[in-house]
């Protein structure tokens, strides 16, 4: 049996009239009659009782109609959803980004995109993860677009640099170094140090930068992201070398510029170059690239 046969059957069963079914389906009565006869032959039961001037459903026909109708309705709903997802102006975009940027940048970027009339029906689905999880999710096709940090190229992913984020040493407000404006990284060695957890996107970068100036910190605690590190530093548990984000403004910590080198990390927009990217996601990616080209990205950081 075919979807076409089932559709013809349901229309005739609903109208109980071949002529009206023919008019609704825009095909000949004979085509409908042959299709239903073939369906009855395949099922091995009569679906309609045919009389000279009317037709009616047999008990088999009623049962079949009751079972088939919701299936066709579900299929119609699914098809509508698939068409919407494939639409350039009505689809969903699954985005993953790591917590440091959740304080404003990514949501503001998405909101500005939606302000454009042609994009207002697009739906964003947001997920906050650390950078390695964002990268893994993009590779597996769980997300369309990701925002993350990484210190090297990632196979299969296209990485588009958005901006460089300053990195600095942070200390508690009452720390002996709190009155300083800048610091050499070696000066943090005597103090308890709070490090990014192993699966954090910045762990490797921080370790590399510390090693480059022969600094071996006294690691006392590990934390998953900037927010957790900031909280520990604010509470006096130690010092840290981190990416500077908006969350720092809310806590009692001092930010010290690093004198050893220009310390920064890069935020990338990433997407899987080897997987299908929905039209709405392509539209969003192109929008971000255009904003970058026009020098507008910095405005979303504030």
UniProtKB/TrEMBL annotation:
GO terms for molecular function: DNA binding; DNA-binding transcription factor activity. Keywords: DNA-binding, Transcription, Transcription regulation. Gene3D superfamilies: 3.40.190.290, Winged helix-like DNA-binding domain superfamily/Winged helix DNA-binding domain (1.10.10.10). InterPro entries: LysR_HTH_N (IPR000847), LysR_subst-bd (IPR005119), WH-like_DNA-bd_sf (IPR036388), WH_DNA-bd_sf (IPR036390). Pfam families: HTH_1, LysR_substrate. One of its GO terms (cellular component) is protein-DNA complex. It comes from the Bacteria. PANTHER family: HTH-TYPE TRANSCRIPTIONAL REGULATOR CYNR, TRANSCRIPTIONAL DUAL REGULATOR HCAR-RELATED. Belongs to the LysR transcriptional regulatory family. This is Uncharacterized protein. It comes from Cloacibacillus porcorum.
